[in-house]
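Bug #77: duplicate submission created two jobs. Keeping one. Sequence:
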Amino acid sequence: MPMQPAMTDLRPMNGATERPDGANRLVACAVSTVRSAEGFDALEREWSELVEGSPVSVFQTFEWLRSWWAHFGADRTLWIHRLTHHGRLVGIAPLFIGRERLLGLPVARHAQFLGCGLSDYTDMIILPGFERSVLESFARHLTTTTEEWDLLDMEDINERTATARLLPAILQNHEIDVYKFRGNVCPYVELPEKAEHLVQDLSPTARYNFRRKLKNLQAQFKADVELIRSETDDLVKAVKDFSFIHGQRWKSLGFPSAFDDERHRAFHVEIATKFAKRDWLRMFFLNADGTPVAVTFCFNYRNRIYMYQSNAHASEAIMRCSPGFLIRSLAMVAGITEGMRVFDFLRGDEAYKYREWDAVDSQNWLFRARSPRTSGKLRFMLFLTKELMAKIRNRLIREYYEFKRIRIVKNPTPGMLANYILTKMFHLFRMGVFFILRHTPLRTVATPEPRHPAGPNSYELLQDYDSSSILQYTLGEKLARIYRSAKINNLLCTLRLQMHPATVLEEGTSAYSGPMKVIQSGNERRLVLGESTFSIYYTSGNWSEARREYWGAMAESPFGTPRHARILLLGLGGGTTLHMLHRAHHAPVVTVLEIDPLIIEAAKRHFFIGSIPDVTIVEGDATTGIRALRKEGARFDMILDDVFNKVTGKLSRSHQGLIKELMSMLNPGGSITFQRMIDTEADDIDSGRFAHSLREMGYDIRVRKIRHRWTNDVIYCRPTRS
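Kept job's structure:
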């Protein structure tokens, strides 16, 4: 059972105070609907007052959404809901309705949030203390207005918000079907209190690169930084320069520019003007010999810097100095002096966000609700057909430009292109099938709930990660990767187990782990938490299968261990790893930290860990237990860790601190072993980032990829030998 240290990111989007959900007293809210631009304009004062007292982002401000509607609202109908309690405005649902057509015929009325597409966060605006009341009233209103909408897409709802935590269940309680998909990740960095600490907090390599590249740029070119933030600045020219850099950067990679659309240029000029008036605009240009070469387009809103866009385009000599990295760093320094506490990179898991800084991911979601009307199912299926066709077309266009980028950047051989095309064909087919299954009763089978975020844009049809890395593999290796991704071994094991009737030996619900079952099937006894198998026990006494899985890999370190090794195990599960340790080592002495008492009791009753000698189980939180053991002076030859299995993105400073505490408890020659469950390609990417972060901390790393019945990475880590 994985134990999570007390490191959470459930905080408001800005400095506003959010009351705990338990403080909400459920009250009825009156709902009125605004459908005209004049009515929208009339909301400005009370909208801004509500925003001032609510934990929302800059993308829910009146300035942003009214500008978006002015430039992108054509052929759409406003559907803004005001929710009041005793005449007091306590919530706004800023929606619009578009008409979806299939072969020219109208098929569905599609409700979405204003700002969708350009807003990195969308959400309702709710006064703290009224979260449940507003969401309940909104859901009730949807059930009484089913003649106005057929489906509702709530895209890019961040996990920090009350909407993400509460609304899906509330809609389902009102008999509105909801489909949930993980969307973009939004990496962010917590800023230090003083600007001089910013560079000091970089890794030694990144700190050296920052100083070296800044010095090289200043030595070769006349470099200066220009800040655009005031109404008196030339905002039109600034947006023109920004759009040029942005467009040239994308066009150099074979892609078109969004600013080829006149609406985008006009929208950004209007936003720059309005945000400058409110002192939210921060547009930093890095000039070399008088020419803009890099820009960071930011919004400083309350205590958060929203990095809306950041691009660089210049000669090769300038690009070698990493002007994009330098201008983002300078934007952070300026923000710290203004009291900013967070630098939000916004949507996307681009590598530079993790390579440059200790960025931590927060997760966006797409919630798709279907009208409960009788005709709702038919209209929903017609909409999905239309979306399937449109997204296939968009995907093919995207792949065309991606192919151009590959040829520009990689200069691949014919064999490498064959690998690329083969893999793309397989992924397109697989994702198309999964898209269909996700909207059917089979969706829980097609898209099992991953143990941590699946990565950017996972809900977008046929969208995959940048797969230019495909080119580095041979055709045979790519076929092997495709075979593994289809999880054939998993399917064969499932068919074998179905030959034996499954018996539930114990079932319950843990406050820490959720639904728990102990299941016997043939000679296998499994501990199942949610839908995932966490431990297995072979009543036949044949542990060869477990040795091929991650439990065996965890027990045997490539760095070696002494006889009578002292081992610390973080997370017990059913004790499979304990049994493997006992078989792999001569009389090991094992200390286990486990937070869940139900897991401990189940492991004793059904997995016979009591028969293993020299095992001490300590019940409690991992972080607290680690610090208690350190205080006692405990030392270990090997530490096996499950705490970091859910960590996504690059390691934060707090995560690095905990790993350093573990390292300080190792005997000379000792090592730490981490395991990562790989359910999706995004998990594979996260595992690579995790290993890279450990290497950047100065540790010696080995990675073993387990691809049998279950898919895991096992990462072995030890201090670099001097």
